[in-house]
Write a structure and sequence with these properties.
The protein is an alpha+beta fold. It folds into two domains: 133 residues, Butyryl-CoA Dehydrogenase, subunit A, domain 3 (Up-down Bundle), CATH 1.20.140; 151 residues, Nuclear Transport Factor 2, Chain: A. It contains twelve helices and seven strands. It has a seven-stranded mixed β-sheet with strand order 1-4-5-6-7-2-3. Helix 1 runs antiparallel to helix 2, helix 7 packs across helix 8 and helix 9 packs antiparallel against helix 10.
């Protein structure tokens, strides 16, 4: 094995971890892959022999690449989804079968990175997001993060602290009982299919937020409150020929089908036995890129 092959092999050992960093930073699986590939190109052009901690070096390199990608985006959702019927952009969901997360997704979804948390991360300024993701999720020290941001360790710590407060306020921890969460989702589906408005309201938190991302082809929607969301759920249920249980970012969710094609991926945030957030991806282009082999029968 020559030197380049050995380096490539070492890099591949870190790829799952680097994809996890990229996903949390960018909210896009495709962009995360691009960031990881760019990290490999930078490694292959560097003096790898002078790198003492390859994993740490690669983590900060991917962080820097993601930071540049975030800053180059034309718009950022400072306060997303606060206005009814404004455009909604949800992070990419990670979909697996209803009983277990696929092995290749385990690292990607470590630390219970649900859609609700990813939505909040989308609201952070790029520097805040980097400081929070690298420090709080991957235990990178502020001394290592500071040079990436061009700030002092103390200023970097303040960025992470500000981001942490925002995350804790907007995305509190969901219920931990997976079986109970699945029961709540099943109750929601049964009430939707049956057109049972009262049963729907009973399973929804009074302050529920429902977000739907239809991409460029379909309208995006934001709904707040149990009564409004229940009405929309009943209307939406008529368009789904079938719905299959799935894990969406590691928590019980649903993949709905129509005419043999995915109609939506639904992610539920459940707290205190009620649904507090409902995030629905209906964008046909993004749905077509999701591998549903572990979800659909046969």
């Amino acid at each position: 094995m020559d030197e380049n092959d050995a380096l490539a092999r070492r890099f591949e050992e870190h790829r799952p971890h680097l994809r996890a960093v990229g996903y949390r930073m960018l909210g896009s699986l495709g962009d995360a892959e691009d960031a990881v590939q760019e990290a490999w190109l930078r490694l292959s052009r560097s003096d790898a022999g002078a790198v003492d901690n390859l994993g740490g070096w690669l983590t900060t390199v991917v962080g820097r690449i993601c930071l540049d990608m975030l800053r180059s985006r034309t718009t950022r959702r400072e306060e997303p989804l606060e206005v009814r019927d404004q455009p909604v952009r949800l992070p990419d969901p990670v979909v697996s079968g209803p009983d277990r997360i696929d092995p290749e997704q385990e690292v990607l979804l470590a630390d219970s990175v649900g859609i609700a948390l990813m939505v909040v991360l989308e609201t952070l300024a790029p520097a805040e997001r980097l400081a929070f993701v690298l420090h709080d999720m991957f235990a990178v020290t502020f001394e290592e993060i500071a040079p990436v941001l061009g700030r002092t360790p103390a200023a970097t710590r303040q960025l992470a602290s500000r981001a942490r407060r925002r995350v804790q306020g907007a995305a509190p921890a969901p219920d931990s009982d997976l079986t109970r969460r699945r029961e709540v989702v099943d109750a929601f589906l049964a009430a939707s299919r049956g057109g049972d408005f009262e049963a729907l309201v009973a399973v929804l938190d009074p302050g529920i937020v429902a977000r739907s991302d239809g991409g460029a082809l379909l309208p995006s929607l934001l709904r707040r409150g149990a009564a409004d969301v229940a009405s929309q759920a009943i209307a939406f249920a008529r368009f789904a020929e079938s719905a299959y249980p799935a894990l969406v970012n590691g928590t019980p969710g649903v993949v709905s089908m129509a005419q043999g094609k995915p109609l939506s991926v639904m992610a539920f945030t459940i707290q205190g036995g009620r649904i507090t957030a409902l995030d629905i991806l209906t964008d046909p282009e993004r749905l077509a890129r999701i591998d549903l082999g572990s979800v659909l029968p046969g």
